[in-house]
Design goal:
The complex is a heterodimer of chains A (279) and B (255). Chain A is α/β, with parallel strands linked by helices. Chain A is 38% helix and 21% strand. A six-stranded mixed sheet of chain A has the order 6-7-8-3-9-10, with helices on both faces. A four-stranded antiparallel sheet of chain A has the order 2-1-4-5. In chain A, a hairpin with an 8-residue loop joins β1 (4-12) and β2. Chain B has 255 residues and is mainly α. Helix content of chain B is 71%, strand content 4%. Classes of the chains: A alpha/beta (279), B mainly alpha (255). Chain A binds chain B through residues 52, 54, 58, 79-80, 83-84, 86-88, 90, 92, 94-102, 105-106, 109-119, 122-123, 126, 142, 144-145, 155, 158-159, 162, and chain B through 1-3, 129-131, 147-148, 151-152, 155-156, 159, 202-203, 206-227.
C-alpha cells in the first residue's frame, strides 16, 4: 500500500475564492524521492502544507477530498499525531530556528523534548542526526551564528531526529549557495536510501531531474502529471506550464539524443553520455 | 550576533546554586528590606547580596547597572535630605544647604533598598543561564509557551535589530536620508518600519509553522535534554531564607 494517498484534494485558503489546490490525486510509495515543480503560485507550497496537515489544521480554509499519510487520514487526525509521522522543512532556514535554544545540539532536541522522548534516546537520536547531516563539528555553536547552508542542515536534522516516515521539503535550497544546495540534495537522497519518503518542492530543475525518482508537475493548483523526470521534462507543453527543461534535456533535444526504446530525452549529462555509449 | 543575555559564565558556588533557590533569595531579600525599618538590618541584607555577587565573580558586572541608578539615588538623597516632613535635627550644613538627620536616614533606607534590589536580581540573572532558569520554572508547572517567549526574545530581538540594519542599508542605497535632524529621521521612519514589521510578521508566521511541526503544541508530558542535578544544599538554604523571612515579619509585628 502507498505511504501517501491523495484523492481529489481541493483546498482554498481562508478569505480567498481561488482554489489553491484543485482536484489533485496521486499516490507515493515508501522510500520514493518525489520532486514537485511548477511556476510560482502553482500550489507547490500548499501541497506541502496539505501533506504535513498544516492545511487545514493550522491555516483553516476550505478543504475537500482525502489525504492519507502512513495510514493517518490527515483531516480527521490531530496535528500532534501527524507531526510524529511527517516532517516539514521550508525555505527560510532562519525562521526555522526556534530562537529559544542556545546551541545546535539543544535546537535539535527541541522537538524531542516536546514529544516527551526519553533523554537517553533523545541524545542518541541527536547524535545520529548530527552524523547523518555531517554537522557534528558545529553542535556546540549558537544556531544563529551559522551560515544559511549550515542552518538549513540543522533545520533538517531537527526534523529528522523526530524520525518521520515522510519528509516534506518546501524549496529548502532557495536561499543557499550552489555548494549548500548540492549538500542538501545529497543529504536528502541519503535519507531516501534509508527508507524515508521524500517530497520536495523545488525550482532548481537540474537538481530535481538528477535526484528525483518521479516528478510531480503542478499548474494553477491542478496536477498536470506525475511521472519519471524523463517523461516530465520530455513533454512538449512543459514551457506552457512555466517550466524550462534542464539544460541537459535541451541539449539532447537540439542534438536529438533520446532513449531508442522510450523516445524520451535524458535529463542529466550522465544520461546523455549513456545514450551516446560513453559510459 | 549573540543572544541578548547578561549571564556571565564562571565557576562559582553561586553559579552552581539551583535557579529556584536563587529566585527565592531575590524574593526574600527584597521582602526583608521592605518589611524591616532598621537600617542595620537592611544594610546587613544588602551586604549579603553584594557578598554573593563577589563570591559569584560578577561584582564588576553590576557596577554599570548601579551607575545607571546613581541619578535616582542622588535625587532621593537631595529630596529626602531637604524636604522630608519629619526633618527636625540638623545633621550638617553645606553653605546654604541644610541636611537633616531624619531625611538622611530615610534616604539611606531607600538607597539600600534600591541597591539590594538591583544586587539580588544581579545574583539571579548574572549567575544563571537563561535556559536553566526557564526550564526550572517549566518543570515547576510554568507554561512552556510563556517560557518560550521569555527565552526567544533574548535571541530574536538582536536578530530583529540586525534585520533593521539591513533594511536601513537597503533604503539608504536607494537614496533615502536616514541621518540628520529630527524631521529627516521622522520622514525616514515609515519607509523603514513598514518592511521591518512585514518581514517580522512573515518570519513569525513561518516560525509558528516550524514550532508546530516540531510538536510545540503537544499536550503530553515533556522531557528535557539538560539534566539538572539536585543542588545538595537547596533544602538548607531555602529553609534559612524562609526562616529569615518569617523572622523579619515577626520582628516587624512585635516591635
Amino acid at each position: 500500500m502507498s505511504i501517501i494517498q491523495v484523492q481529489e484534494l481541493k483546498y482554498r485558503y481562508p478569505d480567498t475564492e481561488r482554489l489553491a489546490l484543485d482536484n489533485v490525486s496521486f499516490e507515493i510509495e515508501q522510500g520514493e524521492f518525489i520532486g514537485i515543480v511548477g511556476r510560482n503560485k502553482s500550489g507547490k507550497s500548499t501541497l506541502c502544507y496539505a501533506l504535513a496537515g498544516l492545511a487545514p489544521h493550522f491555516f483553516g480554509g476550505g478543504y475537500g477530498g482525502k489525504v492519507v499519510v502512513n495510514g493517518l487520514e490527515i483531516r480527521a487526525s490531530e496535528i500532534e499525531e501527524i507531526t510524529s509521522d511527517v516532517g516539514l522543512v521550508f525555505e527560510n532556514p532562519f525562521s526555522q530556528m526556534t530562537g529559544s535554544k542556545f546551541t545546535v545540539f539543544e535546537e535539535i532536541a527541541f522537538g524531542l523534548e516536546n514529544k516527551g522522548i526519553d533523554r537517553t534516546e533523545m541524545v542518541q537520536r541527536i547524535e545520529e542526526s548530527l552524523f547523518l547531516l555531517d554537522i557534528e563539528e558545529i553542535k556546540n555553536k549558537n544556531p544563529f551564528s551559522l551560515s544559511g547552508g549550515q542552518m538549513q542542515r540543522v533545520a533538517i536534522a531537527s526534523v529528522i531526529a523526530m524520525k518521520p516516515n515522510v519528509l516534506i521539503l518546501d524549496e529548502p535550497t532557495s536561499q543557499l549557495d550552489p555548494q549548500g544546495s548540492e549538500d542538501v540534495f545529497r543529504v536528502v537522497e541519503n535519507l531516501a536510501k534509508e527508507g524515508i519518503t521524500i517530497v520536495m518542492a523545488e525550482h532548481k530543475i537540474e537538481k530535481v531531474a538528477q535526484y528525483s525518482d518521479r516528478v510531480l508537475l503542478l499548474d494553477d493548483g491542478k496536477l498536470v502529471d506525475i511521472n519519471t523526470p524523463e517523461h516530465i521534462f520530455s513533454r512538449d507543453d512543459l514551457e506552457t506550464h512555466g517550466i524550462l527543461a534542464p539544460a541537459a534535456t535541451r541539449i539532447a533535444q537540439a542534438l536529438d539524443i533520446r532513449d531508442p526504446l522510450t523516445g524520451l530525452y535524458p535529463v542529466t549529462l550522465a544520461g546523455i553520455q549513456r545514450q551516446r555509449g560513453e559510459i | 550576533m549573540g543572544a541578548m543575555t547578561l549571564y556571565v559564565k564562571q565557576r562559582s558556588p553561586v553559579h552552581s546554586m539551583d535557579p529556584l533557590t536563587k529566585i527565592l533569595y531575590v524574593i526574600v531579600s527584597i521582602a526583608v528590606t521592605y518589611i524591616l525599618r532598621e537600617l542595620w538590618a537592611i544594610a546587613a541584607m544588602t551586604a549579603v547580596t553584594f557578598l554573593l555577587l563577589v563570591i559569584g565573580k560578577v561584582f564588576r558586572k553590576i557596577i554599570p547597572v548601579l551607575g545607571l541608578s546613581l541619578l535616582l539615588i542622588v535625587s532621593i538623597i537631595v529630596v529626602q535630605g531637604f524636604f522630608n516632613p519629619e526633618n527636625e535635627t540638623v545633621l550638617f550644613e553645606l553653605g546654604f544647604l541644610t541636611f537633616y538627620e531624619e531625611g538622611m536616614r530615610a534616604a539611606a533606607l531607600f538607597t539600600l533598598r534600591i541597591l539590594n534590589m538591583i544586587g539580588s536580581f544581579g545574583v539571579l540573572i548574572l549567575t544563571t543561564k537563561p535556559d536553566d532558569l526557564v526550564e526550572s520554572l517549566i518543570k515547576r508547572g510554568f507554561s512552556p509557551r510563556f517560557g518560550y517567549i521569555l527565552l526567544s526574545v533574548l535571541q530574536l530581538i538582536p536578530q530583529m535589530s540586525a534585520t533593521m540594519g539591513k533594511i536601513t542599508d537597503a533604503q539608504r542605497s536607494r537614496g533615502m536620508e536616514t541621518d540628520g535632524n529630527l524631521w529627516v529621521r521622522t520622514k525616514a521612519f515609515f519607509p523603514l518600519i513598514v518592511p521591518v514589521v512585514l518581514n517580522s510578521l512573515n518570519e513569525t508566521r513561518e516560525r509558528a509553522i516550524a514550532l508546530e511541526v516540531r510538536g510545540f503544541s503537544s499536550k503530553g508530558k515533556r522531557t528535557f535534554l539538560n539534566v539538572t542535578e539536585d543542588y545538595p544544599y537547596r533544602h538548607v538554604i531555602r529553609g534559612v531564607l524562609l526562616a529569615v523571612l518569617i523572622g523579619a515579619i515577626v520582628w516587624r509585628v512585635w516591635t
